[in-house]
Sequence to fold (637 residues):
Amino acid sequence: MAEKSRSSKDAEPAQPAVAEANREVGERFPFRDAQDFDDAERGFLGSMADPVVRDGDGRVVWDLDAYGFLGDDCPDTANPSLWRQSRLCARHGLFEVTEGIYQIRGFDLSNMTVVEGERGVLVIDPLISAETAAAALALYRQHRGDRPVTGVLYTHSHVDHFGGARGVVGEEDLRGGVPVLAPEGFLEHAVSENVYAGTAMGRRAAYMYGAALPKGPRGQIGTGLGQTTSTGAAGLIPPTLDITRTGQTETVDGIRMVFQLTPGTEAPAELNIHFPDRSALCMAENATHNLHNLLTLRGAVVRDPRVWAAYLTEAINLYCGATDVAFASHHWPTWGRERIIGFLSEQRDLYAYLHDQTLRMLNRGMTGLEIAEQMQLPPALERAWHTHGYYGSVSHNTKAIYQLYLGWFDGNPAHLWEHPPAEAARRYVDFMGGADEVVRRARQSFADGDLRWVVQVLGHVLFADPDHTEARKLQADAFEQLGYGSENGTWRNFYLTGALELRHGSVGTPTTTAAPDLLAALTLDQLFDSLAIRIDGPRAWDADITVRWNVDGRAPVTLHLHNGVLTHVTGSGPAVGDPDLTVTLDETTLRAVLLGTLSPADLPSHPGVTVAGDTAKLAELLGHLTSPDPDFAIVTP
Fold:
């Protein structure tokens, strides 16, 4: 309740220009078209009586009623198109997709799908948190009986599709042979994404999903893909069966599945699933009711829309002749072959159009920023609700395509060696007559409705003088107005979180994906690599330390810190030097040392460990590690 009162006190009303722009959106698109609402309601069986999901300590990790305000008319502080999408995404409960296939929606950012087999159920994509996944499974069992989980399937390598697995299966189930299926490469990508750049992604995800924002008409209303991320215990159960090729068929508990591998689409490792005995097609996250991200705002590797479009064409050709319902791990299903083919074809055309037209324009010399301003979807695509940029956007996706092909540099030598933001800001502000003069003129631009210019020039003021009170206030107000007008849920959240931090200080990283399961799933190569990216290079320039590990009788691994670079080599050869320290131990003990739970000084006395050399050299090496900062500044230097 404190957050809600703070929101109503701090948030400003919509400026007239923003309110008018939102009103025009309400007149531009076919809001009377109720097909999506009919589809989102179809098959509804019920929801939880208690709307709150808690962890073992009683902390709330999900509240089904948090978005009840979306039942009201859209206010002028929200884009009506995003408001509509959020209403659809907030619909929660158990839904029958077709005979034997059910979805639990609205219990997390993603959907959990349950497919009934001969003895029990196959769970597809068990949400982010164990708590929300357990609650979703309990709701299914309340309506369909206490069926055991006889299989788990991850469609791809993002945490909202595997993090809650321990809420649906336990160690005893796994020892009993419950299979866990995933696309080839799943484990590598699931772990690396959440560990290597996980801190930076997590901090930016705080902006993207608006986890710290009060929920309400002037706050967080959703992300477009789902409402937000749950805040329970995320984990990882490694797969036991890899899907390695399109056309591979597997049967789990009598459930026959034919797979289509789609690497490099919405995730580096992803697959679609056809259920031939039920005429059903699971599109994972490759075709949802929005334009998806080609480069998510939290940061990731750029996704290739050309490949994405090609896989959608392949899915149509392979499966749609024998499909009566298509569903995904977000949003609501589509029924009827003609509608399914139309839906998937429009999704395909959406990504192909953005790809082809971006390439056409960049080959005419246009930059990513210029292409983003010029790009406009064909009217037939724009009229379809599911092509709207609720999660991805035409603007940032076209910039991502430019980045995919040409990188960060636009070819203009004036942009080749620019000053970093704070240094450039001081010079800009000085040239513009000082901070107070910039703020004075920015107020007029704010009144004129030129909000994009306001945030651009005030960004310079705040990077030159982050404590300038009037600049902070006006920038927060401008961010807020831009958020109110955004059709894209993640843009709204970025703007409103920026305003929140300027007014109240950093929200940090409310959720983390660096869970013990993810750290345990790191291979030793990945673990050594994760240490290398934490070495303080300048401080380690003069260090020359070599440590050799003999682990469980395997080929030795030699760590070498030299020139500020930590390398590791398995086996012997010219790249391996004489060690300062050799340690023989098991893998569990090695992980404890590298993760900081066992001190190097304790190694000689640790059971099963043999040491030859100076353990102080290992302590010195580990002393060059730095810790990532989950609270780094974003809207100020």
Notes: Confidence is low (pLDDT under 50) at residues 1-8. The chain is about 40% helix and 15% strand. Residues 48 and 139 are 7 Å apart (CA to CA). The two ends are 32 Å apart (CA to CA).
